[in-house]
Amino acid sequence: MEVAADSSRFSYILELLKRDRVAIKGIERELICPACKELFTHPLILPCQHNVCHKCVKEILFAFEDSFADGGSESSNQSSPRIRISASSMDRIDRISRSGRKRNSLTPRSTLFPCPGCQRDIDLGERGINGLFRNFTLETIVERYRQAARAAIAIMCDFCKPPPQESTKSCMDCSASYCNECFKIHHPWGTLKAQHEYVGPTTNFRPKILMCPEHEMERVNMYCEICRRPVCHLCKLGGCHANHRVTTMSTAYKTLKEKLSKDIEYLISKESQVKAHITQLDLLLKETECNSERAKQEASQSFEKLYHVLEEKKSAALRAIETSKNIRLEKLQTQVEEYQGLLENNGLVGYAQEVLKETDPSCFVQTAKQLHVRIQKATESLKTFRPAAETTFEDFVVDIAKQEDILGDLSFHSNGLEIPEINEEQSRMYNQALISWECPGKTDSADIYVLEYHKLNREEENVTWQKTEVCGKSKVVSDLDDDSSYAFRVRGYKGSICSPWSREVILRTPPAPVFSFLFDDKCGYNNEHLQLNPRRTSVESRAGFPLLLGSERLQVGCYTTLDYIIGDTGIAKGKHFWAFRVEAYSYLVKVGVVPSNKIQKLFHSTHDVTSPRYEQDSGHDSGSEDAFFDSSQPCTLVTLGMKKFFIPTTPAALKDPASRILPLPSCLGICLDCDRGRVGFYDAGRMKCLYECEVDCSGIMYPAFALMGGAAVHLEEAATAKYREYNDDI
Which residues are in the B box-type domain (predicted)? Predict the structure, then answer.
């Protein structure tokens, strides 16, 4: 039973140690001294609020003072704070730390300390190291970390005879650890030691009361808000904190703890944001690794090209020298052989001597004539001796002075990539987003572009950019949410070099899914007045001869009729959006929706006559501009024309005509919500609603258009991957 209990207790202790290790592992970097890069040992709080080991402070001060004494020589070794110093030098360190470095005889003594945390010289004041507080809280955390790192290594009793036993408690007053037997011996009942405070085994002994370093017998009980450090009442009364604003220790404790708790809670609440940043940084690390490898590869390839060029030049030069050498040697060798022939009994002379032995005059003359010419040439060559070839190769000296200068200046050039700019005129948002960009300069264009985009959401603080690589200068982005704003940006890449990001452009998606249709060329289509293109995406009203014949039959005071055309597809339910463009020269265009049960009435209505006494947008024929939209009309339309958008009058709307006239957008949109019974008219370029009203959606709804005189309407085409190519061809 005892073995089982011990095993269970041991397992429980191991589990606790594991938890402590996991909790403490993440804060290890906060427990490292910036000077020695090891865990803090008796850390001191500097005036700049950084912590440094007590021993490191002494060693840095010694090295710092030594550098002044040596005139800043390299032997001071400031880069290594943990300097091995002899025991005889410790007195000097303590003397420096107590007295400080004197600036001059008239100024107070002061010690300057180069803080390894903020890299600034910190004034420690007249008391030097002795004026610094020891950070007991940090020391306790470090001790917990050490214990977690040591895992199950026990703390032994300080008073047992060898071999020592494992300690069971530590006395904070005696600053020692005891086993059960030794604790009873040294803390007997009925004595003052029996009242000492004891805790579990530890090596971190901290005083119960924090004393003032300047007034060693005084307890700190106030907090200086100016110097941000605890002080005693003597510091406030006559010390250097006399004129400073102080508060009670309990108030400072409460205030600082509340602030720290709130800040910690805020950071914990932003954990997802921190993780997103970490993920982004991880991606940047990987991208940096990839780009560095790519840059190395490109640099190697560049130098390989240079090597290849130099090798070719080297081979060509060596071949030229070798060829010239062979030619020269051949000439000189021939000349040597010729001169050797001039020697007695050798070559030409020997041959001539043999010819002289000929006694037959005819034969002699026949041979001697040619021989005599050769002898004369040899004689002349002796008089004007000149080598047949030069021995120097001055013509083959390679001048590399300029190339040396160029190679000496060889370095990484600036990326030279222009920052791409998103062309907002060519970019558009419809059923999909078509994003186009261009580069201001024509040189050093990028090999590939990266387009990033994300949805704008005020509630989301973590911005996650979606990325896509593009070989050209345009991209169609799909799967975007309706009635949402998106930010787009682009950058160029050329090998491992990338340009800065372009300016972000914000585009808004349509308020509803895009509804596709064509103009109906059958139902009510008047081909005498209207003209459709072959694809039925554009309709044009021409004021031609048929219109003149029609106007001849009209009564005096009537101008002309409206020619209607509808879409070939109807809408029964849901919310839909479509867009179109009206030519700027258009005189009068009406756009809107018509229910299926009123289409016949639309094409045969006598109210389609535009006259001074009757307006389609009027509720009566008084001719008053105050008239509002009449529900008896067969369809819901708004009026466009002469580069203006006319908002229909309603009882709630302003009656001033000028307030109802807006500039005509380059692209208009209509959003029909059958479920709510409302129709809205939009500036499709900015996706801004210009006018909205109720509509009867009892039947199937069709897009409706009416034109008069010279006018044209073009349906907006869906953005596809081939849309950009089609427009470029046009």
Answer: 207-249
Residue 64 or residue 479, greater confidence: 479
> pLDDT (tens digit, 9 = 90+) per residue, 32-42?
888 888 888 88
Residue reference for tokens 């073009």: 714
HEC letters along 99-160: HCECCCCCCCCECEEECCCCCCEEECCCCHHHHCEECHHHHHHHHHHHHHHHCCCCCECCCC
Question: pLDDT tens-digit profile of 132-176?
Answer: 888 888 888 887 777 666 555 667 788 887 888 777 788 877 888
Q: Which run of H or E residues covers position 87?
A: helix 87-99
3-class secondary-structure state, position 473: coil
CATH fold of 530-606+633-649+656-715: Jelly Rolls (2.60.120)
The CA-CA-CA angle for residues 158, 164, 165, to 5°, reads 95
On the question of pLDDT at 627 being above 70, the answer is no
Whether 729 and 721 have beta carbons less than 8 Å apart is answered as no
Q: Give residue limits of the domains in the chain.
A: 19-65+109-152, 266-404, 415-508, 530-606+633-649+656-715
- Decide: residue 530, CB within 10 A, 0-12 exposed, 13-18 middle, 19+ buried: buried
What is the rounded CA–CA span in Å between residue 272 and residue 43?
34
Q: How far apart are CA 309 and CA 315, in angstroms?
A: 10
Cα 53–56–61 angle (5° rounding)? 130
* pLDDT digits 0-9 by tens, 650-689: 665 555 677 788 999 999 999 999 999 999 999 998 899 9
What is the chain's percent helix, strand, coil content, to nearest 5? 35, 20, 40
Give me the torsion for CA of 232, 237, 242, 243, rounded to 10°: 120
The second-level CATH assignment, the architecture, of 19-65+109-152 is: 2-Layer Sandwich (3.30)
| pLDDT of 82 | 47
Query: Selecting from 2.60.40.10, 3.40.630.10, 1.10.10.10, 3.40.50.300, what CATH number does the domain 415-508 have?
Result: 2.60.40.10
Distances (CA, A) of 618 to 208, 600, 621, 638, 650: 91, 21, 7, 12, 10
Quick one: pLDDT at residue 67? 57
What is the per-residue pLDDT across 182-209, written as a single tens digit (0 to 9) for each? Answer: 887 888 777 777 778 777 777 767 666 7
In sequence order, which residues have a C-beta less than 8 Å from that of residue 551 and are 6 or more positions away? 559, 560
